[in-house]
Write a structure and sequence with these properties.
The structure holds two protein chains of two kinds.
Chain A: H1 10-13, H2 45-70, H3 84-91, E1 99-101, H4 107-113, H5 117-125, H6 134-137, H7 148-163, E2 169-174, H8 181-193, E3 197-203, E4 206-207, E5 210-211, H9 212-215, H10 223-226, E6 231-235, H11 239-254, E7 260-265, H12 284-291, H13 295-305, H14 311-333, H15 353-373
Parallel strand pairs in A: 1-2, 2-3, 3-7, 6-7
Antiparallel strand pairs in A: 4-5
Chain B: E1 9-12, H1 13-27, E2 31-35, H2 51-55, E3 60-62, H3 67-79, E4 83-87, H4 98-105, H5 108-111, E5 121-126, H6 141-145, E6 151-154, H7 158-170, E7 175-180, E8 187-190, E9 204-207, E10 212-216, H8 220-233, E11 238-242, E12 245-247, H9 251-261, E13 264-271, H10 276-288, E14 297-301, H11 312-315, H12 319-329
Parallel strand pairs in B: 2-3, 2-4, 4-5, 5-7, 6-7, 10-11, 10-13, 13-14
Antiparallel strand pairs in B: 1-8, 6-12, 9-11
Helix pairs in contact in B: 1-7, 3-4, 8-12, 9-10
The chains are: A alpha/beta, B alpha/beta.
Pfam families (chain A): E1_dh
Protein name (chain A): Pyruvate dehydrogenase (Acetyl-transferring) E1 component subunit alpha
GO molecular function (chain A): magnesium ion binding; oxidoreductase activity, acting on the aldehyde or oxo group of donors, disulfide as acceptor
Chain lengths: 374, 343
């Protein structure tokens, strides 16, 4: 495990990461941990409730978006079912001036950054290649090429160093991505320049049909120390452990300690995307085992133990998720295809003679049909 | 009234690039240089010589040996408002960075509906003729000219080297900047106070002529000019066009010339199939077919991997192969008709 002190010598922080940090067990019992407890000691009952609401909201987004895909309103949707704690626990630890570079399954992270419902769906409805302006929310739009964004995060972090600010770049990626060369290169660059970047790996056990054992012979967290980057392995279905780990990494980065690697061990309970069929490659007993470790039910049990799960609160969460579902559906149906000639927009920032010619010729071609119609 | 006329200084192409980079770094503190061996060594061709001493390791960054890493981190820096200038040490080393260039750098502005700009310049020493080992003599420009979202330029002389590198860095679009490595030591006048350099997109007519339009770029511009001089001894007037911009191609300048000469020869070191020559001859055929007196001709590297150094003189277009193609478009006897054929 990683020592919490950001000022400690990095070399001493590199150690075996077979242990899994857990603060909430699957039954919702609080597991004391002398190293990690104080990183979440300030989390109030109200904040716990808020995390619970977040997780239910993003699960509802998943359910509704999957339904929209089945109804033909979305072309595709990548559910994050089962990964709510990993995404909410980490994203809620970030500051507004931090910057996220993610893959395409981080819809809960996007929700936490303030991405609106329609913005979340545009890509999947095929009306845009990006849903939002990255600078509005401090989050780049998802990289589809696996692992590519880890280098972008590292470069952004180098820029933070250059600018002398204590903002941090966070790269989200999966277990499959760790086999990509870009992820290794990102760790090399981050270590060489001590860049303030957090590598947040959600090990959800599956890269489409390929199990994590095909990507890594040992725990993924064990790779980072070889690059000179301290790492943590946390129970990714434990929102408190994830938040504590993320806070440790952020604190280290902000105070000049350089990069940290977090492996959040979780499980993709749904398909890779709505086009996938996990029954072809996955043992249903495995899904059952992980369902018993569901991130939401354990937080719910904890809230119950703490007397925070009142009827009134549950009703308000229910109302909130219903609102979000309605909002999501309405926003989806309001996404219309853009104008035909916009296909030429924003390829370049300024005039491009060849493209201008193609555009004017295609405009003339389209106009021909209007003339015929008249 | 007295005016101080700027005196052009004589510089090699490599030194002109150095001067252009130096000025760009000095004038804009968001410009950072990234690359392998660009610091203390000054780059394997010394193009960044002395910059580390003057601007320090935060602006002139020696990177780990990872081309994808260089381009990928440049993207992150661009997200933060920097204008990175990446050096890829040799043409044949660009492929590990290819994915980040074509899948990210080229597409991010389009992908984000214009929200994110990628003002990244990627410098690539390219082309052969230096007797090098494998992967050190290639001409990969067509891959990038084929990729939407990138601008691609190549310089052929010290003045353009100085102007184009500054224009490339100032561009908000990503620019692949191909430097003709065998011409790094070619000297020419450079006016560093030129008020209005020719824009990034523009080709230049470097020699006027009336019989044949000869289009080229980068290392072969000098060869083309030599060919034009040789042809003029034979009474043939060749107009030489230096493309400078390979994407977009300045078709208007080529078209104007072909309307005058009626004949087109395109030459480049890169292989023929799917190359710039194919694009130019196709476009000329589409745009001014009625003005053509003969089928356009291409003089290019063959469709083979770059050969061993002792074979490169056979691979590279040279003055004689260019003149042979000039003969072809003029309907004179040439290697295809057979040298003994009557004209």
């Amino acid at each position: 495990m990683l020592r919490p002190s950001a000022s400690s010598d990095i070399r001493n922080d590199i150690r075996s990461t077979e242990l899994l940090v857990q603060l909430l067990n699957p039954d919702g019992d609080r597991v004391p941990d002398p190293e990690f407890d104080h990183w979440v000691a300030d989390v109030t009952g109200e904040q716990l409730r808020s995390l619970y609401e977040d997780m239910l909201v993003v699960r509802r987004i998943d359910t509704e978006a999957t339904a929209l895909q089945r109804q033909g309103e979305l072309g595709l949707w990548p559910p994050l079912l089962g990964q709510e704690a990993a995404q909410i626990g980490s994203a809620r630890a970030l500051r507004a001036d931090d910057f996220v570079f993610s893959s395409y399954r981080e819809n809960a992270v996007a929700y936490c950054r303030g991405v609106q419902m329609g913005q979340l769906l545009a890509v999947w409805r095929g009306t845009a290649l990006s849903g939002w302006n990255p600078f509005d929310v401090g989050m780049a739009t998802p990289a589809v090429i696996i692992g590519a964004q880890t280098l972008h995060a590292t470069g952004y972090a180098l820029g933070c160093l250059q600018d002398g600010v204590d903002s941090v770049a966070v790269a989200y990626f999966g277990d499959g991505a760790t086999s990509e060369g870009d992820v290794s290169e990102a760790m090399v660059f981050a270590a060489s320049f001590q860049a303030p970047v957090v590598f947040f790996c959600q090990n959800n056990q599956w890269a489409i049909s390929e199990p994590v054992a095909l990507q890594a012979h040992r725990s993924i967290a064990d790779r980072a120390p070889g690059f000179g980057i301290p790492s943590l392995r946390v129970d990714g279905n434990d929102v408190l452990a994830v938040m504590a780990a993320t806070r440790i990494a952020l604190d280290r980065a902000r105070s000049g300690g350089g990069p940290t690697f977090i492996e959040a061990v979780t499980y993709r309970m749904g398909p890779h995307t709505t086009s996938d069929d996990p029954t072809r490659y996955r043992d249903p007993a495995e899904l059952e085992r992980w369902a018993a470790k569901d991130p939401i039910s354990r937080l719910r049990a904890y809230l119950e133990h703490e007397g925070l799960l009142t009827e009134e609160f549950e009703a308000s969460v229910k109302a909130k998720t219903d609102d979000v579902a309605r909002e999501l559906r309405a926003a989806c149906l309001a996404l219309d295809p853009p104008h035909a000639l916009s296909v030429f927009d924003n390829v370049y920032t300024s005039a491009h003679s060849v493209l201008e010619r193609q555009k004017s010729q295609y405009a003339a071609y389209l106009a021909m049909f209007e003339e015929v119609a008249e | 009234m007295t005016t101080t006329a700027a005196t052009p200084t004589e510089l090699t192409l490599g030194k002109a690039l150095n001067a252009g980079l130096r000025r760009a770094v000095a004038e804009d503190d968001r410009v950072v240089l990234l690359g392998e061996d660009i610091g203390k060594l000054g780059g394997v061709f010394r193009v960044t010589d002395g910059l580390l001493d003057d601007f320090g390791p935060r602006r002139i960054v020696d990177t780990p040996l990872a081309e994808s890493g260089i381009i990928g981190t440049a993207i992150g820096l661009a997200f933060r408002g920097f204008r990175p200038v990446c050096e890829i040490q040799f043409d044949g080393f660009i492929y590990p960075g290819f994915d980040q260039i074509v899948a990210q750098v080229a597409k991010l502005h389009y992908r984000t509906g214009g929200a994110v700009t990628m003002p990244i310049t990627i410098r690539v020493p390219f082309g052969g003729g230096i007797g090098a080992v494998e992967h050190h003599s290639e001409s990969p420009e067509a891959y990038f000219a084929h990729t939407a979202g990138l601008r691609v330029v190549s310089c052929s002389n010290p003045q353009d080297a100085y102007d184009l590198i500054r224009l490339a860095i100032a561009s908000d679009d990503p620019v692949l900047f191909f430097e003709p490595k065998r011409r790094y030591w070619a000297k020419g006048p450079v006016d560093q106070a030129l008020a209005n350099p020719l824009p990034l997109e523009s080709a230049r007519v470097v020699r006027e002529g009336t019989d044949v339009t000869l289009v080229t770029y980068g290392p072969l511009v000098m060869t083309a000019l030599d060919a034009a001089i040789a042809a003029s001894d034979d009474g043939v007037s060749i107009e030489v066009i230096d493309l400078r911009s390979l994407s977009p191609i300045d078709h208007a300048t080529i078209e104007e010339s072909v309307r005058k000469t009626g004949r087109l020869v395109v030459t480049h070191e890169a292989a023929q199939s799917g190359g710039l020559g194919a694009e130019i001859t196709a476009s000329v055929t589409e745009r001014c077919f009625d003005f053509l007196e003969a089928a356009p001709a291409r003089v290019t590297g063959f469709d083979v991997p770059y050969p061993a150094a002792s074979l490169e003189d056979h691979f590279l277009p040279d003055l004689d192969r260019i003149l042979d193609a000039v003969d072809r478009v003029l309907g004179r006897r040439n290697s295809l008709t057979g040298w003994s054929a009557a004209k």
